[in-house]
């Protein structure tokens, strides 16, 4: 365990913005969390549980306590004829886990290759890409209650998983520290290739296998998205909005070619990146922040941008899309004021 005051978080967020935490505590074992919290009750004071720092934006310095579980370890807890159950500690790197499963022939999360962040954060965010969401393979989530300091376990149905969200991100914010996630993966995997262009990309690599699917996903992501190690970003900054038929029809009167995807009932998903691009923001720079020139969903730190600069750019983008298209964009990235 490590505890520091006035601690720089710049290296711990993929936007690479400078922000200091009043107090920072890193944990290497679950028992350290219980010991620390028992001796240092927060008593209503601000705290933030930090994962891989890949889906948040520090707008200013953080005047509370940042809790950073760096819990490591991966183990197979059950093996069946068709499935295995794999338990990974919350601090494990997400893409390292995907690489491990692909190397062993365990299917289920290969479409989620190269998504930055930690295993614990994958459950908080319900990460998804290329036709797959992590909720579909989660078996259980283990956590420590910040109130009782007891270990608790949640089934997927308890977690409130939705589009890029969960109870951990919304209703349960600040109530639990995720310690481990168990996944059910296939030993005879069926590839999910429905996302436009993915099947072709896999076939061009020569075979339909977990390894080639992972290669294809990585290649697509690298073509479209900036590497956080090179250009500060948090991936998709905005969620793709879901609207009713009436809203879609109104938008189609202005933009007949607007992409839309049925979601069941009378609901349709729109492409936020398409809307942002139509409003002229793709590749546009404001100070030291910009909208990425290959994917308008992504806001980037061009070097030295503050969190507030990136936030203000996001506000300009949201205002523009609302004024021109009548659509209110919702941020996927968590703002930390």
TrEMBL record:
Primary location group: cytoplasm
This protein's UniProt keywords: Cell cycle, Cell division, Cell shape, Cell wall biogenesis/degradation, Cytoplasm, FAD, Flavoprotein, NADP, Oxidoreductase, Peptidoglycan synthesis
Pfam families for this protein: FAD_binding_4 (PF01565), MurB_C (PF02873)
Entry superkingdom: Bacteria
Alphabetical GO biological process terms: cell division; cell wall organization; peptidoglycan biosynthetic process; regulation of cell shape
GO molecular function: FAD binding; UDP-N-acetylmuramate dehydrogenase activity
Cofactor(s) this protein requires: FAD
Record EC number: 1.3.1.98
Any Gene Ontology CC annotation: cytosol
Subcellular location: Cytoplasm
Signal peptide: none
Residue positions of the active site: 164, 236, 332
Catalytic reaction list: UDP-N-acetyl-alpha-D-muramate + NADP(+) = UDP-N-acetyl-3-O-(1-carboxyvinyl)-alpha-D-glucosamine + NADPH + H(+)
Positions of the FAD-binding PCMH-type domain: 17-188
Keyword Cytoplasm assigned: yes
Pathway listed: Cell wall biogenesis; peptidoglycan biosynthesis
Annotated PANTHER family: UDP-N-ACETYLENOLPYRUVOYLGLUCOSAMINE REDUCTASE (PTHR21071:SF4)
Function: Cell wall formation.
Record-given protein name: UDP-N-acetylenolpyruvoylglucosamine reductase
């Amino acid at each position: 365990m490590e505890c520091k005051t006035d601690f720089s978080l710049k290296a711990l967020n993929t936007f690479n913005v400078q922000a200091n935490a009043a107090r920072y505590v890193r944990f290497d074992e679950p028992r350290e969390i219980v010991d620390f919290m028992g001796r240092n009750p927060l008593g209503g004071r601000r705290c933030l549980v930090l994962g891989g720092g890949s889906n948040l934006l520090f707008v200013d310095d953080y005047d509370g306590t940042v809790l950073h579980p760096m819990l490591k370890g991966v183990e197979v807890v059950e093996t069946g004829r068709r499935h295995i159950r794999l338990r990974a500690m919350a601090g494990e790197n997400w893409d390292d886990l995907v690489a491990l499963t692909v190397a062993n022939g365990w299917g289920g999360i290969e479409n989620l290759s190269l998504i930055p962040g930690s295993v614990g954060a994958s459950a908080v965010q319900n990460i998804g890409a290329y036709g797959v969401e992590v909720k579909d393979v989660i078996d259980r989530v283990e956590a420590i209650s910040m109130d009782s300091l007891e270990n608790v376990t949640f089934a997927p149905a308890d977690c409130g998983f939705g589009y890029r969200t969960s109870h951990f991100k919304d209703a349960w914010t600040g109530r639990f520290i995720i310690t481990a996630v168990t996944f059910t993966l296939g030993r005879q995997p069926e590839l999910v290739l429905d996302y436009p262009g993915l099947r072709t990309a896999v076939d061009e690599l020569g075979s339909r296998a977990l390894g080639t699917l992972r290669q294809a996903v990585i290649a697509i992501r690298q073509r479209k998205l900036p590497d956080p190690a090179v250009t500060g970003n948090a991936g998709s900054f905005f969620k793709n909005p879901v609207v009713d038929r009436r809203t879609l029809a109104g938008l189609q009167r202005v933009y007949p070619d607007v992409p839309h995807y049925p979601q069941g009932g009378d609901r349709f998903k729109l492409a936020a990146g398409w809307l942002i691009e139509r409003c002229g923001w793709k590749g546009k720079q404001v100070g030291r922040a910009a909208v990425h020139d290959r994917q308008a969903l992504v806001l980037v730190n061009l070097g030295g941008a503050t969190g507030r600069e990136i936030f203000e750019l996001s506000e300009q983008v949201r205002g523009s899309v609302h004024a021109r298209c009548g659509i209110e964009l919702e941020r996927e990235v968590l703002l930390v004021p």
